[in-house]
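Q: Predict the bound structure with zinc ion.
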Amino acid sequence: MTTLLITGGRVLDPASGFDQIADVAIADGRVVEIGPDLARQPAVRVIDATGMIVCPGLIDPHVHLREPGQEHKETIQTGSLAAIAGGFTTVCCMPNTTPAIDSPEIVRFIADRARAEARCRVFAVAAATRGRQGIEPTELRLLAKAGAVAFSDDGDVVASAGMMLGVMREIAPLGLCFMQHCQEPTLTRGATMHAGDVSTRLGLIGWPRVAEELIIERDVRLVAESGCRYHVQHLSSGGSVEIVRQARAAGLPVTAEASPHHLLLTHEAVAVGPASSRCENHRHLEDGTAKAHRLEASATSAHRLEAGATGYNTSAKMNPPLREQSDIDAIRAGVADGTITVLATDHAPHTPDEKAQPFEDAPFGIIGLETALPLYAEALVHSGAIDWPRLLALLTIEPARLCNLDRARKQNDGLGELFAGGPADITIIDPDAEWTIAEDTLAGKSVNTPFLGRTVRGRAVATIVGGEVVMERDRTVHALPSE
Ligand SMILES: [Zn+2]
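A: Predicted complex:
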């Protein structure tokens, strides 16, 4: 008997190209049937999705869940709550935890914690080098066997070309992908924001585009050498888009992801008010009134100071940094022409105290899971770059393929698409819902985002994992119990 019936929605499955008003019947955690007029069937529960998009559950291949080791920022459980609030049914967590995810035991620990605590599916991306130190490779084959879905030293680049080639040669036969955090270290020492006129004005050390582009250039050559699948994480530079475009045109197994902030914000978001704030910060510290400074900076990061106030917006500090409008335009064009095939939030929770430090000391990163969908819609759909079916492909089947979670590899357990017999991981989206991003709308443990106060359009109104409705916004989804 059907346990859950979703009726009347625009069912959109990018993998098959299905795009029709239809019903979806679910039983025993799996999709039983997709088609018209299933409402005649008896069902335990019916969700009326009229006016909504019904699609495969969203997949984010790049999040930081902070467990083990930094549970004050986020845990696997709270990160999963943020995920389902944003419509994500699967997330892949990065290995820059403490300890790093660099042994089969830690990969299994993540899986065990996820099974016990998480409301969505969680898969581990394992480190390619021990402790992410870039010196000694991890046991890549054993990590894959333990369940790692990809490899990355994210947070850090694998700086040595020799190490990178060695690791790629070992990963290639495993069929998994290496995901690179592209940052040439000697060009970015002490850098905290994009190298441009804003960093000059603020007196901050700049992080130039070439530091990203150089690593991608190098790695593309190593891909040609090794045959390893290679993925550029969170690309930020227009030049990077062009390198990826050329590599793909040459037939190399290279993919890339874009993040909401790099699609919408420029380096101007770092500066708040007049440019004198650096001196202000330093005077506070020299006076020994660090606490007063923290409070002031806290106001900056959590609430964004009013125009005319002074300060840096540490909530706009991220790595790679926010760049310029020309980069945003190039990244959007890259999404539109199929160069960039994956979207990823780089969800990076930090506490208000951590973000309240002076700009140079505050950690990099912003949260993303709960705000991503409407921000992607704003940057890519409302702007006319792509349509909803393509946007959802970049959020479902494409990341599933990236992390080997798709039907070709997992058969009936394949994620990222809707098919009879497949897992009932489904997101219901109200594409027109208007809402304002505010701290009290966020479900995760941290609220560090420069998008607080922004009114956005589009929202997940229900998230279903394995046939279970794990998130539901009652005001917009009408649940009609039936016998
Ligand atoms: Zn990174």
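A: The first strand starts at residue 4 and ends at 13.
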